[in-house]
Amino acid sequence: MKTMIKMTAVAAALALAACTAGDDTAAENVEEAAENQAENLEAMADNATTEAAEDSLENQAEAVEEAGEEKADAIDDADGNVESNVSGM
User: Fold this and answer.
1) Mapping DSSP to helix (H, G, I), strand (E, B) and coil, where does residue 37 land?
2) Nearest to 71 by CA among 38, 26, 40
3) Taking the complete model, does pTM exceed 0.70, yes or no?
4) Do the domain assignments include residue 7?
5) Is residue 75 part of a domain?
6) CB count, 10 Å around CB of 3?
7) Element housing 72 (H / E)
8) What is the count of structural domains for the chain?
9) How far apart are CA 73 and CA 68, in angstroms?
10) Which domain does 57 fall in, by range?
């Protein structure tokens, strides 16, 4: 249950970071938030009492970091599309 709450917090942080700034700043914020959450999950994995829990947390950390990178790439792509549409006007 705690993990689900943390994953929900990550999703909220990523969404908030995406909305708070323009240009590259938004993408950087999203990626940084994902990296921070991944680091927290890795720290939890280091303190896990079973190997299965450790593996699960490490997998979650990797998934969070990958999702953050994909979201940042999508934001960068969207910024590029907006700039090209505006410059054509």
Assistant:
1) helix
2) 26
3) no
4) yes
5) yes
6) 13
7) helix 51-87
8) 1
9) 9
10) 2-83
How far apart, in Å, are the Cα atoms of 32 and each of 18, 81, 82? 11, 23, 23
Burial (0-12, 13-18, 19+ Cβ within 10 Å), 19: exposed
Q: Contact 68/34 with Cβ under 8 angstroms?
A: yes
Work out the angle between the directed axes of helices 2-20 and 23-46 (0-180°, nearest 10). Answer: 160
Q: What is the pLDDT of residues 4-58, one digit of tens each?
A: 566 666 666 666 555 544 557 889 999 999 999 999 999 999 999 999 999 999 9
User: Residue 37: CA atoms inside 13 Å, Cβ hemisphere, count?
Assistant: 29
Q: Identify whether the C-beta of residue 57 lies closer than 8 Å to the C-beta of residue 42.
A: yes
Of the pLDDT bands very low, low, confident and very high (cuts 50, 70, 90), residue 86 is very low
Q: Residue 89 falls within a domain, yes or no?
A: no
The answer to whether position 50 is within a domain reads: yes
